[in-house]
Amino acid sequence: MNNIITTNALTKEYDHKKVVNTLDLHVPEGSVYGFLGPNGAGKSTTLKMLLGLVKPTGGEIRVFGKKLSQENRLEILKQTGSLIEAPSYYGHLSGKENLRIICKLKNVPEKDIMRVLHLVRMEKQMDKKVKNYSLGMKQRLGIAAALLGSPRLLLLDEPTNGLDPAGIQEIRELIRDLPEHGITVLVSSHLLAEIDQMATDVGIIDKGHLIFQDSLVILHEHSRSRILFQTSDNEAAFRLLNTAGMSVKWETDSFYLDHVSDDIVMDAVGQCVNAGIGVFRVTEQQKSLEDIFLSLTGKQVSL
Description:
There is one protein chain. This protein is of the alpha/beta class and 303 residues long. The chain has eleven helices and 15 strands. The protein has a six-stranded mixed beta sheet with strand order 7-8-9-4-10-11, sandwiched between helices. Strands 1, 2, 3, 5 and 6 form a five-stranded antiparallel beta sheet that branches. Strands 13-14-12-15 form a four-stranded antiparallel beta sheet, with helices on one face. Helix 5 runs parallel beside helix 6.
């Protein structure tokens, strides 16, 4: 699969401090790439560099296979939509009227308005004044504006910030559907659960460094499952299975086996039962995305 964005040693320094440090991003075409990290990790600065709004201190950016430069920035931006921070709008105008203004600024035919309103599911609210929109509707209007002109790439910076659960669900479903319309999405967030539910690929940034980058499937493979046992005599069961050569581990008042096959679990249960130890419960526990992040960065992140 081709990469729609590639950066090589991308770096940004402010006052001799590197807020983005030798970043090598690879965003596959047709993906929803979740750019994940705590607040202040360097996510927004990276997105602004990808749009040419901030000049890198060092490194290279390639978008659509072309090196981003002053000469070709506008050509690249014509195929790129973005929503950085809060969307701008005229509150006294309707959603459709706001989009008409964006069409003129982008030199896009007004017939494109109905297409983007359909994409963000706002046809029924298009004639309502924007000042009467909910926060989620304003966010969807901002995404609609970014989609005018049929961009191949969409950059979204924390698009679910401040939304209620229903608004978050709407934006999440919208983002997940966009690759079906030929749009690659790079979405930044500090909300681990959100990225987990809408991304196909993930890059994790911490203190300006990229500490993980791969598909979401590979990230979850870091989440080695464990089998937790609860028996009538946990200490006796632990000793029994340990003597049998199983790599059992003790935790609080119970024990578990790490990432083992069904055959080994069946063997462990059988040995306990044959020794007269009752097995109450066998539970598979898998690390959440939050646990994986903690193991990669050594710290908790906002949820």
